[in-house]
Structure formats: structure tokens, C-alpha cells
Amino acid sequence: MQKKIAIIGDRFMLPDVFRSEIEKACGNSLDIRTLEMAWPDEPMEFGNPALGLDKVKEYFGNPDEVVDFIGDAEIFVTQLSPLSDAMMRRLPALRLVAVSRGGPINIDMAAAKTHGITVVNVPGRNASAVAEFTIGAILAETRLIRVGHEALRKGEWRGDLYRADRTGRELSEMTVGVIGYGNIGTKVVRLLRAFGCRILVSDPYVQLSADDRNAGVELVALDDLLARSDVVTLHSRVTAETRGLINMDTMARMKPGVIFINTARGPLVDYDALYDALVSGHIASAMLETFAVEPVPSDWPLLQLPNVTLTPHIAGASVRTVTYAAEQAAEEVRRFIAGLPPVNPC
């Protein structure tokens, strides 16, 4: 009997890429149906009690439409579609959900366990993309790429940026502090090593790899990192412990003139305090990729500052992220069909 697989993709995680990788891994003797949602051209939503989605953090798709599409499928592959307890009750055939994200935050995990549904995810799916983006963000600030670009767009030739008292600095002479040494932080450190900079890492729950230790990377306490770093780049997960980690107090402990980079998550940062630190010059400049509220309001004060570079939460978006996530989801589907345990159970 053919396995029935329902795939709901979107305009980033394309359903045809999912299908192609699943067929490559499992063969063509599958009953696969696909649906493409409109994200990111339309915004995702966040926990809606009125729709029974209060235990789902962020998602895209109407619950009734999702349930109708999954129907009698035993396997469901998606990126953003919600699955609540009420939805699972209407899907008695469902046994595997493959979420092509680093965390299954669009799934009610407690309900999945109750209903005997295995949920798998793709940890680190965009780690390489975010790490590369972070290096670009650091260079944009240290080498005044943003400053020169914005001046030229206004018709200004900033020849004064060649002055010794105004020009940028090379990473080879700087100390870079990396907060968080997980999938992304470790890749950032590996890329930074090529620049010859001094690298400090702060993460109370990990040890450095032997390769990083041999390369001179130092594992230090947060206070030490803040006091010594010319660049601070943030790569922690959002937990009760790390929420608001970068605040008025921790910013005050940073080295005067520091450059701050956030390609992690918005809730890690007190943006009001960051605004004050940027206005005062204690933090020389910042590159911000994620925010507490997304999209950011058009009148948000940080949008008005000349010493900030901002991008709309795109660090993890790359073609390779799409293909890698689909490959990993397909492998989970293959293992499920073969009766093997999952690689990344949630």
C-alpha cells in the first residue's frame, strides 16, 4: 500500500523541492500531494486562541484548510503550517510530522505526544547561511561599507573616510566576542579565524572544540568578553535566562566604541537601551537583523539613527538552506517508512 504524504510548502521552502528530495530518497511509489502557501509574501501569525492555536508560537495557514489538505495522510511535511490538539484529533491517520525548521514552534508538541505522532525537525538548517551573513554584517560595520554606500546614494563623496581618525579597522587587529557557541556560533568562529582576529567565546553550557582551542580561541565569562571585545556578535537561543541578555547593564560593561551585531533573535536585546547606547556613542554602531516586533514599525526610532544597519530577518534565507532542509526532511521520511528511528526527534 502506498504511503500517503501531504506536503505544505511556501515560497521559500518550495513544495516541489520537498517532493523531489523525498522521491530521491524513497523512490516514486508514493502518494504525494503538495500545496504552496503565500509566506513570506504574506506575514506569518502568532498564537491565536480564537482558532485554538494558543499553544503554537508562530505559523502560517488556516487550521481548517490545513486539516482538509492533510486528510488521510500518514506523513505530513511542512515548514510553517500549524498543528494544534484540535487539529490532530481530526487527523487519526497522521503518524509523522517533519518540520523543516530548527524548532517545531508551529506544532503543539504536548498534543503530538498524546496522539502518538512523531515530530522531527532540522536543527542547524540555516547555520551556514546565518554565519556567512554575520561575517558580512561585521565587515559592513568595521570597514564602513554602509557609511560609504549611504553617502554615495545621497550624492556625497566621503573622501574623508580615508582619514586615519575616521577610517575603519581591519579584523586582524580586533577582538571579536561571540556570545553563544551552538550551531551558528561555532561556524562564525570558524569563519572568523581566517581573518586573524582574537576571538573570545562566552557560553556557560559548552566547551570549545580542540580545533578552536588550538587556534587560540578563548572561552571566557560574559563580563570578560564584554570588557575586551571590539565587536560583540550575538548567537544565543532565547530562553528565560537569555531573554533581555543585552540590556542597559550589559551594554554599560561593553568596551566604549564597540560594534554590536545581532543576527540571533530580537528578544535577546533591550532595543530601547540599545538606542540610548548608540545615541551616546558608547556603542559606535550596530547591525541588526532581528527585532522584538516584526515587521518593525515605520516610526521606530532605531530606523532614524545614522550608525545602524538593519535588514528584515533574512540572514537564514539562502538557496542552500532550502535544499539542505528538504534533504534532511526527506531522510526522516525515508527512515520512518523503513521502520528506523528518527535522526532528529523533537
Kindly describe this structure.
This protein has 346 residues and is of the alpha/beta class. It has two domains: 140 residues, Rossmann fold; 184 residues, 3-Layer(aba) Sandwich (Rossmann fold). 32% of the residues lie in helices and 15% in strands. It has twelve helices and twelve strands. A seven-stranded parallel sheet has the order 8-7-6-9-10-11-12, with helices on both faces. Strands 2-1-3-4-5 form a five-stranded parallel sheet, with helices on both faces. Helix 1 crosses helix 12 and helix 5 packs across helix 7. The longest helix has 19 residues. It is elongated. The two termini are 28 Å apart.
Give the integer mean of the pLDDT values: 96
Assign a percent range to the helix content: 25-40%
Question: What is the approximate shape?
Answer: elongated
Which residues form runs of ≥5 with pLDDT under 50? none
How do the strands and helices of this protein lay out in sequence?
Elements: E1 4-9, H1 15-26, E2 31-36, H2 63-70, E3 75-78, H3 85-89, E4 96-99, H4 109-114, E5 118-120, H5 127-142, H6 145-153, E6 175-179, H7 183-192, E7 198-202, H8 210-214, E8 218-219, H9 222-228, E9 231-234, H10 248-252, E10 258-262, H11 271-280, E11 283-288, E12 308-310, H12 319-337
Parallel strand pairs: 1-2, 1-3, 3-4, 4-5, 6-7, 6-9, 7-8, 9-10, 10-11, 11-12
Domain D-isomer specific 2-hydroxyacid dehydrogenase NAD-binding: 136-315
Keywords: NAD, Oxidoreductase
Pfam family, one: 2-Hacid_dh
